[in-house]
Each structure stands twice: as structure tokens, then as C-alpha cells.
Amino acid sequence: MASGGLQLLGFVMAFLGWIGIIISTAMPQWKMASYAGDNIVTAQALYEGLWMSCAMQSTGQIQCKVYDSLLKLESSLQATRALMVASILLGLVGVFVAVTGMKCMKCMEDDQVKKMRMAVFGGVIFIISGLAALVATSWYGNRVARAFYDPYTPVNTRFEFGSALFIGWAAASLAILGGSFLCCSCPRRETSYPPTRGYPKNASSTGKDYV
């Protein structure tokens, strides 16, 4: 029962992490304009994401523009996109595989060994998915930090971490932790010994004595 509860907890955490990765990928707030310099602009807030850039006016109106061409984007941004999309697809596969191996599901009940392996395999896929998202968000965040502290970067073009980065970090951590719980939830296989067979009883004596 304890391993079943740990398995369910791991799946829920990994699933929530996967949902967070999707939300982080779709959000445009991967980096936001910094107004720490002398020229502070309070009329609007500028955001940039993986797919579009947005400007929020002081009235609350948001205007977004999707990036025109994929080939014009920086190679690092394209790599970040690819890692996040790969993380989402891996998480989708991990959901189906882990659900198949869950103890509360009826499928594959006739082979508990394969069912346990499916749960562990789903956990491994979730871990890989979380690592891909963690690498993507950390790489993007490192680029933002390096550009911010670069003395050659104009003050009015500096950006800070956006909320999508923090959501991505938390979601990746959840996916990795949940996948680890899935991998550790299966009990160890105990060595099974064949049942002992009793020796056949001696046939009743026929009254003949041998010397």
C-alpha cells in the first residue's frame, strides 16, 4: 500500500510538472524589460517569449506580435524552443506509459512484472522531460543574465527574468521529482522459491518381507 501511495504521488507531481511546462512554453513572459536605469518608462511593459513579443500599456491593454520568420531568430532561441517542445512530447508519452503501469489501473493485471516496468519506464521518461525543460529554461535565463550585466548592453534594452522562467523551473523540478518517485515506488522483487513438495508416502506393505 505504501508503494502504491508513493506511485500515485509521483504521478500527480510529474503530471502537474508537465502541465506547468506547457504553460511556461506558451507564456510570452520569458523575459521582461528592466526599468532600473535612468530612463524609466512606466507607460508600458515589454515582454518577450519563445513565440511572440508583447507590450502592455498602462491602461492594461496588451498587444502581442508573433515572430515573423523562424530563420531570422537566434539559434539559441530556436534551440530553447526545440527543447521545450521535446519536453512536452516526452511528457505526453510519459503520461500514457505511467498510467499503464499504475497499480490502480486494470490494464496488464495478469503480468505484474511488466506493469512495474512500465511504471518505472514512465518515471524515466518524466525525468528526461524535466531535464530537457530545466536545461532550456536555465540556458535562456543564463543568456538574459549575461546580457543584463554586460556593460555594452544599453540600459533601455536590458531584460530581467520573466514569470515564465520561474514557472518553468518549478515545473521541471516537479517533473523530475515525480519521475523519481515513480521509479522508486515499485517494491523490490523478492526471490521466490518453488513450493516444497512432500515426499510420497511409502506404499502400504504388501506383507512380503525381503531379506
Q: Give the class-level CATH name of the domain at 4-27 and 75-184.
A: Mainly Alpha
N to C succession of SSEs: HEEEEHHEH
Second rung of CATH, namely the architecture of the domain at 4-27 and 75-184: Up-down Bundle
Helix fraction by DSSP (H/I, runs of at least 4): 40-55%
Strand fraction equals 5-15%
Membrane topology: Multi-pass membrane protein
InterPro entries: Claudin (IPR006187), Claudin1 (IPR003548), Claudin_CS (IPR017974), PMP22/EMP/MP20/Claudin (IPR004031)
Keywords: Cell junction, Cell membrane, Membrane, Tight junction, Transmembrane, Transmembrane helix
Function: Claudins function as major constituents of the tight junction complexes that regulate the permeability of epithelia.
Give the structure's gist in a few sentences:
The chain is an alpha+beta fold.
Describe the 3D structure.
This protein has 211 residues and is of the alpha+beta class. The protein has a domain at 4-27 and 75-184: Up-down Bundle (Butyryl-CoA Dehydrogenase, subunit A, domain 3), CATH 1.20.140. Helix content is 53%, strand content 10%. It has helices at residues 2-26, 75-101, 112-149, 163-184, and strands at 31-33, 44-48, 52-57, 62-66, 159-161. The protein has a 5-stranded antiparallel β-sheet. Strand 3 and strand 4 form a beta hairpin. The radius of gyration is 28 Å and the shape is elongated. The model has no long low-confidence stretch (mean pLDDT 81).
Task: Produce the secondary structure layout.
Layout: H1 2-26, E1 31-33, E2 44-48, E3 52-57, E4 62-66, H2 75-101, H3 112-149, E5 159-161, H4 163-184
Antiparallel strand pairs: 1-2, 1-5, 2-3, 3-4
